[in-house]
Amino acid sequence: MGRDGWIGIGLLALSGWLYANLDKIPANPFVPIGPAFYPRVLLLLIIGLTLLLILQELLASRQQKQGVRIKIRLENYRGTLVSFFLFALYVFLLPRLGYLVSTILFVASLQWLLGQPLWRRLPVSLLIGLGTSFVTYLVFEKYLHVFLPRASWLP
Amino acid sequence: MIEIILQSITSVMEPKIFVSMAAGTLAGLIGGAIPGVTITMTVILVLPFTFGMDPLQGIATMIGVYVGGESGGLVSASLLGIPGTPSAIATTFDGYPMAKKGEPGRAVWTGIWAGVLGGLLAGIPLVIGATQLAKLALNFGPWEYFSLFVLTLSIVGALTEGSIIKGLLSGALGLLITTVGADPIMSVPRFTFGLEFLQAGLAFLPILIGLFAMSQLMEDLEKRGSGVELQSPANFNLSVSHLKVLKDILSQPFNLVWSTLVGLWIGVLPAVGGSAANILAYDQVKKFSKHREKFGTGISDGIIAAESANNANIGGSLITMMAFGIPGDAVTAVMLGALIIHGIQPGPLFVTANIKVAYGMLAAYFIAHLVTVAIEAGCLRAFMKVVTVPLNVLLPVVLVFCVVGSYALNNIMANVYTFFIFGILGYLMVKTGFPLAPMVLGVILGDQIEVNLIRSIMTDSNLWLFVTRPISGILLVLAVLSFVLAIYQERRSGKQQQPAG
Q: DSSP secondary-structure letter at B469?
């Protein structure tokens, strides 16, 4: 089975689990259609469409027994993986180190790693991080009165 | 009506609103000109700046971004051969060859003026259509609304590129996302699993920002990894006789009007977008042309068709958004979110209940076109320098703006987590061929579909009313037809590919 088939199986499992959870939603005696009615209809629709997706995949794989192998060049995904990892770290640190510090670290490190990570480029990356962090902080906090995350780990 | 529009023009010309709208137009021009940034991304970036503004100022700023962005896309399309936005793809077909032939100024300004003329022409049906359709929508009951939303979703699910099943699944999953949190009738919690941040449901804007922005940025990164890099702009001579360019455009009235109508119609269709509008208009004009063999060699006909359709597409998208509260494309989806943040509920009551904002939007649409020309006349060369900002500098800054935009919505980290989770989901969906537009539309319309479905069944449990009420029935028939047409087209394209493969 191909990629779509496995996605279908994953979706079926998720839909089945959510469907089983529908019984936990309390019914309301004053409303003839309970709050579980609409999600039940949707889940049945999703299950039906997922079965069609799996069927389509099975028919396609029968017609084309030797699937085309797509070569994945890992170096194309290096930047993507680095970005996702650093962004996850940024989201984790944001409420702990606060907006200013975590943004400086995130922008500088990602900017540095996505370019050619040469040591002589580090000051420039730090400068861009500092600039982005302070300018956005001033504009949002001071001018637009939008409050940004505060630090729980720092005094 | 003319009096209200004139009053609205005066309101938009107030320094506070005009300056922020002009700043939005400038941001749109820059964002549109940078390949990979797209107008949707620029609107998302500008969104947090509008939180502190009053509704008209905020929405006028976004319209500025939208109009400016459409025009910005053509600059890099014509001068670099790389469309700044997907809606400028067809502009490259003739804009770039014309620039290479030594007429870069003519290539850019033909696009700019054609866009302005197309946009202004589309403004007329926008003013009439939005108000008249909104009046018609006032007669809708819950049955009609439910059927209208089903039709919208089916069009989007079926018309998106790739598999119909994946399009429909994407839309259904979008609807399911809206069931997380309290139900809209009795506020009973659903799918919260005891998690506090799910109690209030998932906010729409972080989902939208995550789905669109993250996937777009990561795709750009991968393209960079494959060696696709921006060229450096040469020293173009952009001086041109504007009178000659305008004369050239006006000497092709059929091209201008037909392309405008194509763009307008594509804009009215939910979530189809500008990229389809400009390619379709280009294709149509080429088919009608007496010298179709010259298309692609750098003639003005192709640029006029693509760019007038592009800007007219904005008008069409705004009609659907203002009359029914349904986004015509991704940009208007963000705008809908912005209206809700400002306490305005889009939908048929929007025009009558918020006359100042509604007509202000129309006024901003007209003025933004003129502001675009003024800015481009002064800063065209500067844009070319901005276009070459490296992605490694741009990407972290854009991500920070996305975080600020998500967080500032309610000042809670839950929105940032939502943005991140849906960012990953959006990226995976793009990689596995699931279209994003149906999911976004599902998230936008989910609550409304549920409310209208429950309301109609509670009013009368006879389900046949969905079919027997005339407007509702017609809308459902159209929904079925859109499926049949999509299946037919998918099969036909499959058959055409078989002999080739």
A: S
CA distance to partner chain A, nearest, from residue B140 (Å): 21
pTM over 0.90: no
State the burial class of residue B451 (Cβ atoms within 10 Å of its Cβ: 0-12, 13-18, 19+): middle
* Average pLDDT estimate for B172-196: 89
Inform me whether the C-beta atom of residue A4 falls under 8 Å from chain B C-beta atoms: yes
d(CA B94, CA B78): 8
Q: Give CA torsion, residues B476, B482, B487, B488, to 10 deg.
A: 120
Question: Do residues B130 and B267 touch, judged by C-beta distance below 8 A?
Answer: no
A111 to B392: CB separation less than 8 angstroms, yes or no: yes
Q: Cβ B188–A39 below 8 Å, yes or no?
A: no
Q: Where are the alpha helices (DSSP H) in A22-144?
A: 37-63, 74-114, 122-137
Q: Is the dihedral of CA B54, B56, B57, B58 positive or negative?
A: positive
Please report residues of B whose CB lies closer than 8 A to that of A9: none
Q: Cα–Cα distance between B183 and B76 in angstroms, integer?
A: 47
Could you say which residues from 155 to 174 on chain B have a Cβ atom under 8 Å away from some Cβ of chain A? 163, 165-166, 168-169, 172-173
What does the DSSP 8-state code read for residue B346? -
What is the Cα gyration radius of chain B?
Answer: 22
Amino acid at B489: Q
Element (H, E) at B193: none
Is residue B399 exposed (0-12), middle (13-18) or buried (19+ Cβ within 10 Å)?
buried
Q: Side chain identity at B439, as an amino acid letter? A: M
Smallest Cβ–Cβ distance between A33 and the set B217, B399, B458 belongs to B458
Residue type, B69: G
Contact B224/A79 with Cβ under 8 angstroms?
yes
Q: Which residue has 């809206």 as its token pair?
A: B178
CA–CA distance, B400 with A106 (Å, rounded to integer): 9
B457: which 2 tokens?
A: 């069944």
- Per-residue model confidence as pLDDT tens digits over A22-58: 988 887 777 678 889 999 999 999 999 999 999 988 8
Residue of chain B whose Cα is closest to the Cα of A141: B408
Kindly state whether A135 is in contact with chain B, defined as any CB-CB distance less than 8 angstroms. no
Query: Is-contact B329 B53, C-beta < 8 A?
Result: no
pLDDT at B229 over 50: no
